[in-house]
Design brief:
By secondary structure, the protein is mainly α. It is built from nine helices and no strands. The radius of gyration is 32 Å and the shape is elongated.
């Protein structure tokens, strides 16, 4: 009889424990609040101009997501609250980040302008060897000039976009620089050699 009572007590304790575990729910409200704070930080530009703060907040949020997957709901509740606080703090660094991005974009675009001037001088030197590339070169002159102007116009309102434009324009310079070096290293076409001999 005593054994039976102990068994019944044990079963009841186990049943209560199972009910308690089953009743534990993911912290949906805290998750949604953290997600809303993340979206607000992105809308404020923190993902572009306060990258370090956003990365730190995102790591906290990801930790909370992992805790939910592992059914550690109480821990996740606190971690989501920490993530929300971190996302809410991130936009405070946006203005400083924009200032830095503006300075970097301005300097980079100035350097690009000088590199472009040098590149066009290199193009003049190999002009006679450029028959196959002439059309592409002329198209890229237009693309570069328009891109340089667009980059300068973007500095005030979208310095991150201006920095992306710098990368695009650098690619054009690097591609043509390699092409012009290759053309400079190749011998002149046979017709040019004959003309040069006739001049002597």
């Amino acid at each position: 009889m005593k054994y039976f009572r102990c068994l019944v007590s044990l079963i009841m304790v186990l049943a209560l424990a199972l009910v308690f575990i089953a009743c534990g729910k993911p912290p949906k409200a805290e998750q949604e609040a953290a997600k809303a704070a993340m979206d607000a930080a992105i809308a404020a530009g923190a993902d572009k101009y306060a990258v370090t703060a956003m990365d730190a907040a995102t790591k906290i949020y990801d930790a909370a997501e992992t805790q939910v997957k592992n059914r550690k709901y109480e821990e996740a509740k606190k971690t989501y609250a920490d993530a929300k606080a971190a996302f809410e703090k991130a936009p405070s660094g946006v203005e400083e980040g924009k200032k830095v991005a503006r300075a970097e974009a301005t300097a980079a675009l100035k350097d690009l302008g000088a590199s472009w001037k040098d590149l066009r001088a290199s193009a003049k030197k190999v002009e006679k060897k450029m028959k196959d590339q002439k059309e592409d070169w002329e198209a890229d002159i237009k693309t570069f000039d328009e891109g340089l102007k667009a980059g300068k116009d973007m500095i005030a309102s979208d310095p991150a976009g201006a920095k992306e434009k710098v990368t695009e324009l650098k690619d054009i310079i690097e591609r043509w620089d390699a092409t012009f070096k290759e053309l400079a290293a190749t011998p002149a076409p046979p017709e040019e050699k004959k003309e040069n001999k006739g001049k002597k």
